[in-house]
């Protein structure tokens, strides 16, 4: 699994997100809560459009929330992911979603947050 950078200063609980990136966390939380999924994710493309998704776990189809959000963006014509966010109970970012984002964004931030929306860290590699 990709390392989630959780480096923070003693003075703050977590690094502050820009308003646009905080919106991604909010959208991801909402997507997760709407269907009670294991994860929710949201991405922002080169035009500022956002796409949110939840994990799909069917007998014949399994897609992570981040994979589905990236697929939604790509199917709408996105050629670059500016930023992404995942809301999960897992301690780190899952590999399949990480790879999907990297297909369209070699170094854009992927913010990993817990179910409350508290930022756990950001993956940039």
Q: What would a concise description of this structure say?
A:
With 125 residues, the chain is of the alpha+beta class. Helix content is 30%, strand content 28%. It has helices at 19-35, 65-75, 95-104; strands at residues 39-45, 50-54, 56-58, 61-63, 81-88, 110-113, 119-123.
List its traits.
125 residues, alpha+beta, two-stranded antiparallel ribbon, 3 helices, 28% strand, disordered N terminus, Cytidine deaminase, Cytidine_deaminase-like, catalytic activity
Report the portion of residues in β strands.
25-35%
CATH class: Alpha Beta
Quaternary organisation of the protein chains: single chain
Average of per-residue pLDDT values: 89
Terminal-residue CA separation? 12 Å
Order of helices and strands: HEEEEHEHEE
- How many β-strand runs? 7
CATH architecture classification: 3-Layer(aba) Sandwich
Distinct helical segment count = 3
Give the strand order, joined by hyphens, for the main sheet. Answer: 2-1-5-6-7
Uncertain regions spanning at least 5 consecutive residues: 3-13
Rg result: 13 Å
User: What is the makeup of the main sheet?
Assistant: 5 strands, mixed
- Overall shape: it is globular
Give helix % range: 25-40%
Q: How would you classify the helix and strand content by structural class?
A: alpha+beta
| CATH fold topology | Cytidine Deaminase, domain 2
Query: How many domains comprise the coordinates?
Result: 1
CATH superfamily assignment? Cytidine Deaminase, domain 2
